Amino acid sequence: MATAATLARLCARLARIPSSACRPVRSKPTYGYYSVTMPSRTVRLTGWGRISPSRAELAEPATVAGAARLLEISGSGRGLIARGLGRSYNNAAQCGGGVVISTARLNRILDLDPDTGLATCEAGVSLEQLMVAGLPAGWFVPVSPGTRQVTVGGAIAADVHGKNHHVAGSFARHVRSADIVLPGGELRTVTGQSDPGLFWATMGGMGLTGLIVRAVIQLKRVATARIRVDTVRTADIDETMAVLAEHDASFGYTVAWSDSLARGARLGRSVVTSGDFAEPADLPAADRADPFAFRPGARLGVPPPMPPGLINRYSVALANEAWYRRAPRSRQGELQTIGAFFHPLDAIRNWNRVYGPGGFRQYQYVVPFGQEATVRRSFELVSRARAASFVTVLKRFGEGDPGPLSFPAPGWTLALDMPARTGGLDRLLAALDRLVVDAGGRVYLAKDSRVPAGTLAEMYPRLEEFRKLRAGLDPDGMLASDLSRRLRL
Ligand SMILES: Cc1cc2nc3c(=O)[nH]c(=O)nc-3n(C[C@H](O)[C@H](O)[C@H](O)COP(=O)(O)OP(=O)(O)OC[C@H]3O[C@@H](n4cnc5c(N)ncnc54)[C@H](O)[C@@H]3O)c2cc1C
Questions:
Q1: H helices within 158-254, ranges in order?
Q2: Spatial distance between the Cα atoms of 132 and 4, rounded to a whole number of angstroms
Q3: 356-387 CB burial, b ≥16 within 10 A, e <16
Q4: Pocket of ligand 1 (CB under 6 A)
Q5: Distances in Å between the alpha carbon of 279 and those of 37, 81, 228, 288, 335?
Q6: Spatial distance between the Cα atoms of 408 and 233, rounded to a whole number of angstroms
Q7: Helices (DSSP H) in 39-185: which residue ranges?
Q8: Number of H helices, E strands in the chain
Q9: What is the 8-class DSSP label of residue 201?
Q10: What is the pLDDT along the chain (489 residues), one digit of tens a residue?
């Protein structure tokens, strides 16, 4: 097992680069969401779900050359993996006993063309940074997940999706090129045309093809920083699916927040919100002078430590009831801010702490269109198990990307999150796995924390293709994460 000495040795061999380019963490850092349990170079890391911690040496190269040097040195024992802002729910950005390369200091926007919306940035740039830089000139990120606290590197490596997947696809579709440091240290610029194999394996490849250090992203033109939102409260799962299908035809962004505990005639009742960016004329007169006003920043924080058991079937049932009743039966054209519409959870810093010390598991699947009975059945299983999913989101995906491990595919995607200590959770999720496999679906690698390797292989029929490409790129198995070891990616 690697120790702090591993990194010290590694840095010694990197004598040619300035020490600032490879700075091990010595004290509690102020960015990211990993916890450092002692003032040392060894850090204890978890994902956003705060489960499965592991220790690794953390390197924070400040230059591309410094990052490249880290990958030049093979045979560093347990391997290396990249880490952005640690917002994957699982251990995808951990490498127990090895080295984790944080992109926290590779965080410069190198160019943003106000005419074309092409942004050239380092991999550690967050989507929030891109919004702050792009909005004054009328540019927004092409795809935004439910948090803007993710890096460009993490968005590419997980090929993230947003509420506009049905029209815009996932993040990779908007990546014009990526600079990747391959195992061995070679820096290669790839596009979908120049090297489709490497390019697409990297899009959704969970950091296992190389370290993304820079990328060129095509941003999306918007006329204001507000969204015109229609809200519909649905009575049951059939109505929820019908409204989502109907709204996909007329809105750029759609999603349903569902009540996972509702049963019987209310099974799958939801609040569907759909919207598009507003035009300046839609804004109140007072806001027209500054149509791109955007004020990021969390308003509240969850203090540590939170007691265990706060999120349970009773508290979630109460919260679901209140939230469902508060939603209008139908409302049109409400103006919402970017934060309220895209990233409501970002308003509460460290909201993941509410699950208490046991953490939580996210589970997200996609099943093809035509498998509506599977969606209904999964709601039945969850509500029957009385498993409290605090955030339950249903959406329809459009066309997927060519990446062999890219998650989205045409069909229904359901995301659930539940306290890891929920009784019977393993059994419930194993039952969902079976439903998903039988329906020809799969789970999301940025969230999965427990699917057996054999089951994952059933879900991703092109896994072998990915493994072969990796074996060619990285014969020594230098790149590895806790996730890749468990799933034999
Ligand atoms: C509140 C919340 C809501 C979310 N909503 C969505 C959603 O709607 N849609 C969605 O798709 N996802 C969603 N996610 C998941 C999140 O978008 C992804 O997990 C994303 O990858 C996290 O980015 P990160 O920068 O934090 O990367 P990390 O979590 O640090 O890393 C994720 C993966 O990317 C790899 N990686 C990171 N940087 C690099 C790099 N420079 N080079 C190579 N590999 C790299 C890591 O090795 C790891 O495998 C959500 C997460 C949260 C916490």
A1: 165-168, 196-202, 237-248
A2: 37
A3: bebbbbbbbbbbeeebbebbbbbbebbbebbb
A4: 48, 81-88, 92-93, 103, 123, 145-147, 150-151, 153-155, 157-158, 160-162, 206-207, 211-212, 345, 446, 481
A5: 49, 43, 9, 10, 11
A6: 26
A7: 64-72, 127-134, 152-157, 165-168
A8: 14, 21
A9: H
A10: 333 444 344 333 333 333 333 333 333 332 233 333 322 379 999 999 999 999 999 999 999 999 999 998 755 588 999 999 999 999 999 999 999 999 999 999 999 999 999 999 999 999 999 999 999 999 999 999 999 999 999 999 999 999 999 999 999 999 999 999 999 999 999 999 999 999 999 999 999 999 999 999 999 999 999 999 999 999 999 999 999 999 999 999 999 999 999 999 999 999 999 999 999 999 999 999 999 999 887 667 777 767 777 888 888 888 888 889 899 999 999 999 999 999 999 988 888 888 888 999 999 999 999 999 999 999 999 999 998 898 999 999 999 999 999 999 999 999 999 999 899 999 999 999 999 999 999 999 999 999 999 999 999 999 999 999 999 999 999 999 999 999 999
Type of residue at 327: A
Torsion (CA) 391, 392, 397, 400 in degrees, nearest 10: 60
Tell me, in angstroms, the distance from the centre of ligand 1 to residue 263's CA: 33
Q: Tell me which residue has tokens 């919207």.
A: 275
Instruction: Write down the residue that tokens 């916890």 correspond to.
Output: 35
* Whole-number Cα distances in Å, 243 to 342, 350, 391, 395, 413: 19, 33, 20, 11, 15
Alpha-carbon distance of 144 to 141, in angstroms, equals 6
d(CA 466, CA 485): 14
Residues in the chain: 489
| Best of 147, 165, 182, 363 for a ligand 1 pocket test (most atoms within 8 Å of beta carbon) | 147
Cis ω for the linkage preceding 344 (within 30 of 0): no
Sequence-distant (6+) residues with CB within 8 A of 69 are: 14, 16, 17, 21, 22, 61, 185
Q: Among 105, 108, 143, 151, name the best residue to mutate to test ligand 1's pocket (greatest count of ligand atoms within 8 A of Cβ).
A: 151
The two three-digit tokens of residue 347, written as one number: 């308003």
Residue 132: both structure tokens together: 């702050």
Type of residue numbered 50: R
Of the candidates 265, 269, 267, the residue with the CA atom closest to the CA atom of residue 235: 269
3-state class (DSSP) for residue 424: coil
